[in-house]
Amino acid sequence: MDKKLLDILACPICKSTLVYDSAKQELICKADKLAFPIRDAIPVMLEDEARQLSFEETEAYR
After folding, report:
1. I need a labelling partner for 48 at 20 to 30 A (CA). Which of 2, 10, 34, 39 fits?
2. Which positions ≥6 away from 57 have C-beta within 8 Å?
3. Which domain holds residue 11?
4. Residue 56 to residue 48: CA distance in whole angstroms
């Protein structure tokens, strides 16, 4: 994920900063507990495409 792109992207719901998970190819919103997928190097920033983080995942990103 390009560092410049990561710096300008924000959660489409709450506008908070996102965390890049390179292993899962996802952008994480800790505030909303959502993971937005990255497909073919393109972040999919749609609420309908995001998955809900489990409690364990949420704790791991703290």
Report:
1. 2
2. 35
3. 3-60
4. 22
